[in-house]
Design goal:
Elements lengths: L1 H14 L2 H50 L29 E5 L5 E5 L4 H14 L8 E4 L11 E10 L2 E11 L5 H44 L16 H50 L4 H32 L8 E4 H18 L3 E4 L6 E4 L1 H18 L6 E9 L2 E8 L6 H4 L11 H4 L17 H11 L3 E7 L3 E9 L10
Helix pairs in contact: 2-4, 5-6, 6-11, 7-8, 8-11
The chain binds adenosine-5'-diphosphate (ADP).
Adenosine-5'-diphosphate binds next to helix 8 and helix 11.
């Protein structure tokens, strides 16, 4: 039963394949074309044969008139039923018909294979259809229904005139297609058409199979690609449409592969970032609970736990923000606003943090710089940069300087610090997720005065970059090791073409 089922399945697959449908349509169209062509050829051949036959018959009629004796109309039929008119030997061929009707419609002579009464019936019909003008002959195709056997005969009815009066009729008949050309033509057309169709089906399948081979390659390759291994490519080295499709597919796979890798890396980095504070919390709690401790020791343990907890809250918040941004769920509520105003608000909000960390946070010149943007996101972006300045400045006179302005159609904010700076080679990775130049420096111990600094997880600048790009702007960084770092954000100024809905 299984092989039968398999054959049935293969048949089902074939019937539903593009190859099959392509060949079917192609063959059907060709069959229609061949049929129309055959009908046209047959019709034009039949018409030519008929024209030829009528021409031949006129000629023959003249010959017959030439051999008939004088006064033949009155000769009549002999006692043995034969005509009294004698024609030259072998003058009429076996398939030719000649009937002579005398005055008052009596039969005078009858030669050939068609019975006289049928010929007369055909002649009467022709005369009714085309009443004679003078002695002009009437040519007609066989009267349908007179006899099944003589439908391919044509007849010429010639009135016999005697001094202006109608004396009788000379009826001559001959086969339209004496050599059987039409049946042969039908056979030829039928055989030719069938042969063409057979070749078309065979050739069509071969061609369609060849054309569809790359599709099968793509299907096979696509089946072997799993979500865990997106490194496979179709690499169809052809320049046709299917090659283009395969290239597009490869491009999509490459993008998916990169996205999956980023996603995997992201999850791994996030887990890694969370593992350290969770381990610290676990260690601190275990140590504190291991034996009876003094109050300051409990306070210290709780301080560490709270600090790690804060770090985790910030990390989870950042992760959530990035996840929303990636999922396109972060909707910017754009409005017309002054970027300098937002920068000033960020400075004011972070001045206490700066003071706790003994960092001088200064706002420089801040003329009005109108843009279209989301106030909350812009505030978060500038705050992240200022927090980084506060976090990473070192030395005795720690200082973060914020200034803003408007230049060349762009509103800009510059945040500079006199920290340790960043090596040139690290700058290109600075905006990558979870990237930290010096991990030890990013994590800060809880402060004595309860004012722990912002610990980092390497997500701050990624968020900054996303926000800036969502506003159509750019963010750049300049840094001189030992001297300090300057971040500059540039966002297109509010122009005539922009609206808050953009
Ligand atoms: P983090 O949360 O670690 O601060 P960010 O994405 O904000 O993450 O910054 C990435 C890395 O860039 C930081 O770990 C730090 O090494 C470096 N960095 C950022 N800002 C400064 C700065 N003003 N001075 C020196 N290094 C900086």
């Amino acid at each position: 039963m299984a092989p039968v089922k398999r054959v049935w399945e293969r048949l089902d697959l074939l019937v539903h394949s593009i190859r099959f449908r392509l060949v079917l349509w192609f063959t059907a169209i060709l069959a229609v074309v061949l049929l129309v062509f055959s009908i046209f050829v047959y019709w034009s051949q039949a018409r030519d044969l008929r024209i030829d036959a009528y021409g031949r018959m006129q000629h023959r009629m003249a010959e017959i008139a030439g051999v008939l004796p004088q006064g033949f109309v009155d000769m009549g039929i002999q006692a043995n039923g034969m005509s009294a008119i004698s024609l030259p030997a072998s003058f009429l061929q076996s398939n030719e018909v000649l009937v002579i009707i005398g005055p008052s419609g009596k039969l005078v002579g009858n030669w050939g294979p068609v019975p006289a009464d049928q010929v007369i019936q055909i002649a009467q019909h022709s005369i009714e259809q085309h009443p004679p003008h003078g002695n002009e002959p009437i040519t007609s195709a066989a009267y349908q229904g007179a006899s099944q056997n003589y439908t391919d005969y044509a007849f010429t009815v010639s009135p016999i005139m005697d001094e202006g009066t109608l004396d009788g009729f000379l009826i001559y008949g001959s086969p339209i297609d004496p050599t059987g050309e039409l049946p042969r033509l039908i056979l030829t057309l039928l055989a030719g058409s069938l042969l063409t169709l057979v070749f078309t089906v065979g050739g069509g399948f071969w061609l369609a199979d060849r054309a569809m081979r790359p599709v099968r390659t793509i299907t096979h390759a696509a089946q072997t690609i799993s979500e865990t291994d997106l490194s496979r490519r179709l690499t169809l080295h052809s320049k046709d449409e299917l090659g283009e499709l395969a290239n597009t597919f490869d491009g999509m796979l490459a993008r998916l592969d990169a996205a999956f890798q980023r996603q995997r890396q992201f999850v791994a980095d996030a887990s890694h970032e969370l593992r350290t504070p969770l381990t610290i919390v676990n260690l601190e709690a275990t140590r504190a609970l291991a034996s009876q401790r003094k109050t300051p020791e409990y306070e210290r343990a709780l301080g560490v736990i709270r600090s790690e907890n804060d770090f985790m809250i910030r990390l989870v918040n950042d992760l959530l923000t990035l996840a929303r941004m990636d999922a396109g769920q972060a909707v910017l509520q754009k409005q017309s606003l002054d970027l300098s105003d937002v920068a000033l608000e960020a400075v004011e909000r972070l001045s206490s943090l700066a003071a706790r960390n003994q960092v001088t946070l200064e706002a420089g010149d801040m003329p009005e710089a109108q843009i279209i943007g989301d106030r909350q996101y812009l505030l978060q972006m500038i705050s992240n940069l200022i927090e980084n300045g506060i976090k990473y400045t070192t030395g005795n006179e720690r200082r973060v300087y914020v200034e803003s302005g408007l230049q060349d159609g762009y509103a800009w904010v510059r945040i500079s610090d006199n920290g340790p700076g960043i090596e040139q080679s690290y700058l290109q990775h600075l905006f990558d997720r979870f990237y930290q130049v010096d991990k030890a420096r990013s994590r800060q111990e809880p402060q004595e005065d309860d004012s722990q600094g912002p610990s980092g997880s390497g997500l701050g600048l990624s968020i900054v970059q996303w926000i800036v790009q969502a506003h159509g702007g750019t963010v750049g960084v300049e840094s001189t090791p030992g001297e300090g770092t300057t971040f500059e954000v540039r966002i297109p100024a509010a122009g005539e073409n922009e609206s808050p809905d953009d």
